[in-house]
Amino acid sequence: FFSMxxxxxxxxxxxxxMCSSLINKQTVGRLQNLISSSCIEHLDFMxxxxxxxxxxxxxxxxxxxxxxxxxxxxxxxAQMYTEESFSIANFESKPIYDILDAIRNSTGxxxxxxxxxxxxxxxxxxxxxxxFTVEEHLKNLYHTAGCLHYWIAVxxxxxxxxxxxDSISPFITTVxxxxxxLTVGVIGREETVFDKPLTPAEIRSVxxxxxxxxxxxxxxxxxEIVLYCGRxxxxxxxxxxxxxxxxxxxxxxxxxxCLQMIYSNYxxxxxxxxxxxxxxxxxxxxxxxxxxxxxLTPLQRRQLEGCLCRVPTQFYNQVWDILTRTPxxxxxxxxxxxxxxxxxxxxxxxxxxxxxxxDILNHIQQPEYRQIIVELLCIVSTILxxxxxxxxxxxxxxxxxxxxxxxxxxxxxxxxxxxxxxxFFASIPSVTTGYLARAVVNNVLKGGxxxxxxxxxxxxxxxxxxx
Length: 467
Description:
By secondary structure, the chain is mainly alpha-helical. The protein folds into three domains: about 95-160, no CATH class; about 170-310, no CATH class; about 315-445, no CATH class. It has helices at about 30-40, 95-105, 110-125, 135-145, 150-160, 170-175, 200-210, 220-235, 250-260, 275-285, 285-290, 300-310, 315-325, 340-345, 350-360, 365-385, 400-410, 420-425, 430-445, and strands spanning about 5-10, 20-25, 130, 130-135, 180-185, 190-195, 245, 330, 335, 390, 395, 450. A hairpin with a 2-residue loop joins strand 3 and strand 4. Helix 4 (about 135-145) runs antiparallel to helix 5 and helix 12 (about 300-310) packs across helix 16 (about 365-385). The chain is globular. This is Phosphorylase b kinase regulatory subunit. It is a lipid-anchor. Pathway: Glycan biosynthesis; glycogen metabolism. It comes from Clastoptera arizonana.
């Protein structure tokens, strides 16, 4: 079939009738429509003409040096642009003329982007080089990289030009309306919480003051993740089940880990197309649906779930129940969730309490360790639920319990002087649950960590009842 926009030359030869019609560079419809209308309107006299000695030539496309692509299959696939990796660390302390020489001699787009970034930082956007300002050079590189679909250079230039997604504000609001919070920021640096609707100007200020100084490309990538989360949560809220606070920097970390787990030869996440980034985000959020099929190890699952900050159903209620029976509070990674004034100023199902628990857990920088702590809290809750007469007398130190569980694990597996806990974290949940539960019981028996609610009654026989 010919498309309505196709341009062609058609020559019609009807033997000695010399019926020749030349249509040069005209828009035509479908070929069958042309034949149908011709037979009815122009060739209906042919039944009165003796055609026995006539020769009819078949319709054919006239050949030209170039008349454009005739179909989508004729369009050659765009070549994938690649270049060697380059680090600007060596140029940080070099004089300006060395940077200019490097720009003149460089051929890679990403390399030029980084060098112009240094120039921008030192001399400003209006510095003139080769008849153009630094800002104009960056815009040209941005468009060139876009035409080549070289996404890492596109994002780098976009960040240096302080681009912001104009439609990002409504998507942040969508996330908030669904009962979630957003944080942006580079891992290991201060995070900014989005707990109320913000204007594009406010978002831009946060992005380029708290993210770009530490990671240029993430200043753009994190905007993309916020945008995609806002779209996805509106159509598929179950994908965010168990996630109270969407920490965008850690979501990106989960996506990086996912690439490493699934693909042997993977490219940096910053060099993936926007579509690929969106698909990867959904894949990470739905890890429970495909983890078994793609044979993820328990360690890998804990890493992904820990990065997503996902917790089981009723988890925050379980922590509340533990806290009601722990007068000295719960401690992890040097931070304490206090018994008071928490219980007197908050309620069990209050969002404020859940966010307080998240703030304590967010001090854990190792995602798999965070998940182990979540598992441990669920185990402690189960023990207390089955033994309602028990109460923790001393502070509940979760790090000590994990350490004790790991020691028992090493002893049972004849592992001496082993400090790498990854072997323990890589164990299946039934194994880690067993050792964590034993650690809790051992603390009860050895240190008197548990006491009955009526501890002053000396006639109480069942001092510790663990089932």
